[in-house]
Design brief:
The protein is of the alpha/beta class. The protein has three domains: about 1-95, Ubiquitin-like (UB roll); about 105-195, Elongation Factor Tu (Ef-tu), domain 3 (Beta Barrel); about 205-335, Nucleotide-binding domain of ferredoxin-NADP reductase (FNR) module (Rossmann fold, 3-Layer(aba) Sandwich), CATH 3.40.50. It is about 20% helix and about 30% strand.
Length: about 350
């Protein structure tokens, strides 16, 4: 165990870093509201300045740090470990305090199922209950891979200890190569979670909009399942947009169709950006963020938004919602992944 002290504009919070943890995971495991999003080195949300002590950097080239950040002596808490008692200066806020404290456990692969030609669902059963909020993610420690990989759950918290992940195969991706080519039913991995702040807000009174692209399908399906489970759709609707490149990439409808209210309270809208010329696609075409803008029946600012997908999609949605339609920031929920 190593002592950590986090300085912010209000006070200093302290916690212990267990062996194997990063500074960020140690803070969140202790219930501290440390600012973050991806937990993987890409977003830059967990930057800090080292005040005293020694640290080890796990990924020096992480894209979450700019050259300006490095010149200013900034570091990423998700990519650093304390080597001695340290004091750091970092942003904290109540909104980042974990609703459920993340924990490490072992999980065994129990089943796999293809969703599309390049997205597969992996179902794991863990040692303890699957405690997480709809829309959150976990860090998976895969055999032969040095660093953890972040993947979102597609199911909702349950007492059967099941964690389901819908993962898209990435060309030359080390993590997905292990998952798709090496891992077999019965094999065991390390699972650490839950993480993520883009979870379902059950107290929000507005109709919901979920926008997914690629394997961003998983957290949005979890949000939809969570909304049904919480009874939110008794008096409101959920609009589920899925943005795909080609018709064969379209997915999600079969998963939503099994939910109460599909077709009435749950409206599924697939959008294809490259439909081709053979007439196989008669649905909406173009970019999914444009479809959001012209499909919703009420003013865009009247909805609660959740989205997950490739960075260009999430960036376009941010601009559409915050700049184009002045949607209040507290109605927009997403975690940045790269």
């Amino acid at each position: 165990m190593t002592d950590l002290t986090i300085l912010n504009e209000k006070d200093g919070s302290s916690c212990l870093q267990a062996d194997g943890d990063t500074i960020l995971r140690a803070a969140l495991r202790a219930g501290l509201g440390y600012s973050y999003e991806c937990n993987s080195g890409g977003c830059g949300g967990c930057k800090f300045e080292l005040v005293s002590g020694e640290i080890e950097t796990l990924w020096a080239e992480a894209p979450g740090l700019s050259e300006r950040d490095r010149k200013r002596g900034r570091h990423l808490a998700c990519q650093c470990r304390a080597c001695s008692p340290i004091t750091i200066k970092a942003a904290t806020a109540a909104e980042y305090q974990p609703k459920i404290l993340p924990r490490r456990q072992k999980a065994g692969l129990m089943a796999v199922q293809d969703i599309t030609h390049d997205i597969r669902e992996f179902r794991f059963v863990a040692e303890a209950h699957a405690d997480f909020l709809p829309g959150q993610f976990a860090m998976l420690d895969l055999p032969g891979i040095a660093s953890s990989r972040a993947y979102s759950m597609s199911n909702i918290g349950n007492g059967q200890r099941e964690w389901h992940f819908q993962i898209r195969r990435v060309l030359h991706g080390q993590g997905t190569h292990v998952l798709f080519e090496k891992l077999a039913v019965g094999d065991e991995i390390g699972l650490d979670g839950p993480y993520g702040v883009a979870y379902l807000r059950t107290e929000a009174p507005r109709d919901l909009v979920c926008v997914a692209g690629g394997s961003g399908l998983a957290p949005m399906v979890s949000i939809a399942r969570g909304a049904v489970d919480a009874g939110l759709l008794a008096d409101r609707k959920l609009y589920f947009f899925y943005g795909a490149r080609t018709p064969r990439d379209v997915c999600g409808e079969s998963l939503l169709r099994s939910l109460d209210g599909f077709g009435d309270r749950i409206i599924y809208i697939p959008v294809v950006s490259l439909p081709g010329d053979n007439g196989d696609w008669d649905g909406q075409t173009g970019f999914v963020h444009d479809a959001v803008a012209h499909t919703l029946p009420a003013a865009v600012a009247n909805y609660e938004f959740y989205f997950a997908g490739p960075p260009p999609m999430t960036q376009a949605l941010q601009e559409l919602l915050m700049v184009g339609h002045k949607v209040p920031f507290e109605q927009i929920h997403f975690d940045r992944f790269f």
